[in-house]
Amino acid sequence: MISVNIDQQMESIKREGFTVIENLLSSKEIESIRHELSPYLRRKNLGRNNFEGFHTERVYALLNKAPAIATIVEHPTVLEILDRLLPLNYLLSAALAINVHPGETPQPLHRDDTSGSNDYGLKNELTGVSAIWAIDEFTDQNGSTEIVEASHLSSAINSETNKPMKVCMPAGSVLIFDGRLQHRGGSNRSSRPRLGITPQYCAPHLRQIESMLLAVPPPKAAAFSDRIQEMLGYSINEPGFMGYVDGRHPKNLIDPEYKGRKYRSELPVS
């Protein structure tokens, strides 16, 4: 396993708003993900607007369609960073594949985490973190993600004054960034598609971008690790019992052997 200095990654995210960790996935892991995604990447799911990209395929509900991406959703290096950035019991907010085809133009600049923005359009606290995994190499020509360095500290979104920089990285690498960072998908001027996967994570009191409990049916959810299940929403948020179902811990719905705190009535009486 590649050795990663987590303290350095944290400092980069704090200062610049992002970090890149190269070559975290093996070629075998990359091919497993690519194999599961292949039935959905046949130019049938092209974007419906300028944001999704008219020459870009987006595959949603990804853990349901390609369970192999659990490898990256709960990659230990990424989780170690998330554990320091987000509150306990954070959730998986979205997980999608983005396949940028030749001829695609740049997305509008945007932030992934806009919940609870103040009057100036910038949040005072970090409640969301995004990751973008390179399944293909991200190059200067093929639609690599573009970010505005340190823009998580600024309220303005203007591509004329805030010049985006391309994030080029080998296949198997990951870009991790503060959800308030301005970024966009770049234009693909090459002759081949560029495939990436983006899991996004949020604080446990926020609504997920994609409703994970609906996107991943319970029988599929039951096959994943405890950590994935918790991030899908089969968890409760303390203090209290936020997230219960019919007065019970949601884990009861997919695991009859669940041994944790099962009922809302088990809360201490004040």
CATH class: Mainly Beta
Total number of domains: 1
What Rg do the Cα atoms give?
19 Å
Strand content: 15-25%
What labels would you give this structure?
8 helices; 270 residues; Jelly Rolls; alpha+beta; 20% helix; globular
How would you sum up this structure, described in words?
There is one protein chain. The protein has 8 helices and 9 strands. The model has no long low-confidence stretch (mean pLDDT 90). The chain has one domain: Sandwich (Jelly Rolls), CATH 2.60.120. The chain is of the alpha+beta class. Helix content is 20%, strand content 17%.
Describe the protein's topology.
Layout: H1 6-16, E1 18-21, H2 27-37, E2 56-59, H3 62-65, H4 70-73, H5 76-85, E3 91-100, E4 128-134, E5 145-147, E6 165-166, E7 174-178, E8 183-185, E9 194-202, H6 212-215, H7 218-221, H8 226-232
Antiparallel strand pairs: 1-7, 2-3, 3-9, 4-7, 4-9, 5-6, 5-8
Can you describe this structure in just a few lines?
The protein has 270 residues and is α+β, with helices and mostly antiparallel strands. It has helices spanning 6-16, 27-37, 62-65, 70-73, 76-85, 212-215, 218-221, 226-232; strands at 18-21, 56-59, 91-100, 128-134, 145-147, 165-166, 174-178, 183-185, 194-202.
